[in-house]
């Protein structure tokens, strides 16, 4: 079985990234008997200028999208797409638009434990923000998510109080932007193929099968 590694550039307050993850999970399930897939979550910030305490989400997003009516239309469309893949978007519940730097630090630390822990943290952050209306910039929320994923609460608490790995996150985001990533989700497959946007599961599954077949052909050519 061929192994594929995906570096998935994402932000936890991006609804298309949550949708992209749900669709990716379906694609992975579809090819699990043919291709083995490892995911590394990479940071991106849609709103790097938000203060640590966050902003009024409803006000700021309406401004960004050109008014409340356009925001509501976008949310209605996303809610429908979410329903198709098991996401219960509750956009009205999101009161705080957070600064996501600390959420990305938590994802990074979870990744040093295991891919499973990282995936659990990412899933919980998306769910907390989009389905529960929790502020994922709040350390108390982040600590609950860390503990639920099996990370040591006290250790994460000390790390969050410090500046640990802030530079790492910011330099990773910078590197992604230098590569031309200016929207998320963005999938970098085996460091050589790029897929942008929340693609349908069948599109992703087809891409994985093609890449795995190419790898197999290349390896057989080397033998």
Main attributes of the structure:
single chain, 223 residues, alpha+beta, four-stranded mixed sheet, two-stranded antiparallel ribbon, 57% helix, globular
Explain this structure to me?
- This protein is α+β, with helices and mostly antiparallel strands and 223 residues long.
- It is built from nine helices and six strands.
- A four-stranded mixed beta sheet has the order 2-1-5-6. Strands 3-4 form a two-stranded antiparallel ribbon.
- Helix 6 runs antiparallel to helix 7.
- It is globular.
- The mean pLDDT is 97.
The average pLDDT score comes to 97
- Could you give the order of strands across the largest sheet? 2-1-5-6
Largest sheet: 4 strands, mixed
* Secondary structure: number of strands: 6
Strand content: 5-15%
The residue ranges in which pLDDT falls below 50 over 5 or more consecutive positions are none
User: Helical residue percent?
Assistant: 55-70%
Instruction: Round the Cα radius of gyration to an integer and report it.
Output: 18 Å
Number of helices: 9
What's the arrangement of secondary structure elements?
Layout: E1 2-10, H1 15-31, E2 35-43, E3 55-56, H2 57-65, H3 68-84, E4 96-97, H4 101-113, H5 115-130, H6 139-148, H7 153-161, H8 166-178, E5 186-189, E6 193-196, H9 201-222
Parallel strand pairs: 1-2
Antiparallel strand pairs: 1-5, 3-4, 5-6
Helix pairs in contact: 1-9, 2-3, 4-5, 5-6, 6-7
């Amino acid at each position: 079985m061929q192994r594929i590694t995906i570096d998935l550039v994402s932000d936890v307050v991006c609804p298309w990234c949550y949708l992209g993850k749900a669709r990716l999970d379906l694609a992975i399930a579809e090819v699990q008997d043919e291709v083995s897939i490892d995911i590394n979550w990479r940071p991106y910030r849609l709103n790097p200028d938000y203060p640590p305490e966050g902003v009024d989400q409803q006000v700021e997003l309406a401004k960004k999208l050109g008014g409340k009516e356009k925001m509501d239309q976008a949310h209605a469309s996303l809610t429908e797409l979410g329903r198709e893949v098991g996401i219960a978007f509750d956009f009205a519940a999101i009161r705080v638009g957070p600064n996501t730097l600390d959420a990305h630090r938590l994802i990074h630390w979870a990744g040093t434990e295991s891919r499973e822990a990282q995936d659990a943290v990412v899933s919980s952050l998306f769910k907390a923000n989009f389905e529960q209306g929790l502020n994922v910039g709040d350390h108390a929320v982040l600590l609950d998510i860390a503990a639920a994923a099996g990370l040591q609460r006290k250790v994460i608490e000390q790390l969050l109080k410090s500046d640990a790995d802030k530079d790492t996150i910011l330099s990773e985001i910078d590197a992604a932007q230098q590569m031309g990533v200016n929207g998320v989700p963005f999938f970098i497959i085996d460091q050589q193929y790029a897929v942008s946007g929340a693609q349908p599961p069948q599109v992703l599954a087809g891409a994985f099968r093609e890449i795995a077949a190419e790898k197999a052909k290349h390896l057989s050519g080397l033998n």
